[in-house]
């Protein structure tokens, strides 16, 4: 029996990244990783309140933000645009999106904003 790598979840299946940790130091996840994990949970809540096409956009923005934020040299324009997309989605669902906005506001200074 061959071991197959786990398939990447579709964007519409936003999940927390339980598999994170492969690059953690002995002291545990970085503050950026911790905030991103929390943001994944919050965007999942937001996605449930959005029309399917908007949920897909929010998932794509989250994916891009996560990829850029965890790079050694994040590309500012990419993560800024992705963060803006998530904030817009969060604002569109009212109170449900408040926590996501707060998490992004904590995350951006860590990325150099």
Describe this structure in words.
- By secondary structure, this protein is mainly α.
- It has one domain (31-111).
- 60% of the residues lie in helices and 0% in strands.
- The chain is built from four helices and no strands.
- The protein has helices at 31-49, 52-69, 76-92, 98-111.
- The longest helix is centred in the middle third of the chain and has 19 residues, at 31-49.
- The radius of gyration is 14 Å and the shape is globular.
- It starts with 30 loop residues before the first helix and ends with a helix.
- The relative contact order is 0.16.
- Residues 4-27 have low confidence and may be disordered.
Descriptive keywords:
single chain; 113 residues; 4 helices; mainly alpha
How many structural domains?
1
Radius of gyration using CA atoms only: 14 Å
| Span between termini | 48 Å
Helix/strand/pairing category: mainly alpha
- Separate helix tally: 4
User: What's the overall geometry?
Assistant: globular
Total beta-strand segments:
0
- How can the largest sheet be summarized? none
Per-chain topology:
Blueprint: H1 31-49, H2 52-69, H3 76-92, H4 98-111
Quick recap:
This protein has 113 residues and is mainly alpha-helical. It is 60% helix and 0% strand.
């Amino acid at each position: 029996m061959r071991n197959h790598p786990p398939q990447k979840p579709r964007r519409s299946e936003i999940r927390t990244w339980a598999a994170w940790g492969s690059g953690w130091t002995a002291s545990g996840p970085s503050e950026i990783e911790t905030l991103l994990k929390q943001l994944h949970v919050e965007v999942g809540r937001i996605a449930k309140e959005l029309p399917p096409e908007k949920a897909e956009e929010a998932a794509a923005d989250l994916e891009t933000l996560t990829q850029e934020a965890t790079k050694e040299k994040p590309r500012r324009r990419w993560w800024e645009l992705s963060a803006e997309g998530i904030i817009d989605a969060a604002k569109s669902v009212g109170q449900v999106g408040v926590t996501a906005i707060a998490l992004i506001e904590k995350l951006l200074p860590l990325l150099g904003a």
